[in-house]
Amino acid sequence: MRWRKVKRSLLGFWVLVLILLFKCILIFIAYDALRRLSSNTLDITPGTLFRKSFTGFSLLIFLLLMAEAFVYFLIRFRIKNKWWVRLHVWPLFVITVLMPLLGLFAVKIVVANWGPAGLRELNRYLSNIKFYSFWIIVPLCHIFFIATIVKIFTPKKEVQNDDTPPGLLDEFVN
């Protein structure tokens, strides 16, 4: 019996784990910033700080990404089309990791060159870009995630090998 070596595909899993780690770092930064702000001005409990830094929507996105990473880990040996995985995880990486980093870089440049007046305009512009890119790219990416899962669970077509000689009317069957 010949053993066929099956290649595993862990790209989706590792990129989603990287996105989750970045999200955890952002949550910690938001929590720490709110803690510093509240210690100076307000009397807020740590539970309230955590709820303010980790909103319900970000919790939903975090859990969704965690579930997707778990699914990619489970199906790592059965992924047939790796391009669909790439078209799912790399745009998500750009939206959730690179865009916030580029936004921070843009804020530094605008504050240094134009001051607070330019920062208000930049925040409005960046929030529009973030909103529209999220709601356009994320659903499109998840089409490829769903297609990957559907392709895995579709049964293989069996090739029929008939050793019988062709009949008189077989050429008209198909």
Give keywords.
single chain; 174 residues; mainly alpha; 74% helix
Shape: elongated
SSE ordering: HHHHH
Strand content bin: under 5%
Described by strand count, sense and barrel closure, the largest sheet is:
none
Q: Helical residue percent?
A: over 70%
Radius of gyration: 25 Å
Number of discrete domains = 1
Which regions are unreliable across 5 or more consecutive residues at pLDDT < 50?
Answer: none
Give the beta-strand count.
Answer: 0
How does this structure look, described?
By secondary structure, the protein is mostly helical. It has one domain (11-154). It contains 5 helices and no strands. Helix 1 (11-41) runs antiparallel to helix 3, helix 1 packs parallel to helix 4 and helix 4 runs antiparallel to helix 5. The longest helix has 38 residues, at 116-153. The mean pLDDT is 82.
Explain briefly what this protein structure is.
Helices cover 74% and strands 0% of the residues. It has 174 residues and is mostly helical.
What order do the helices and strands come in, and which of them pair?
Layout: H1 11-41, H2 46-53, H3 56-74, H4 82-113, H5 116-153
Helix pairs in contact: 1-2, 1-3, 1-4, 4-5
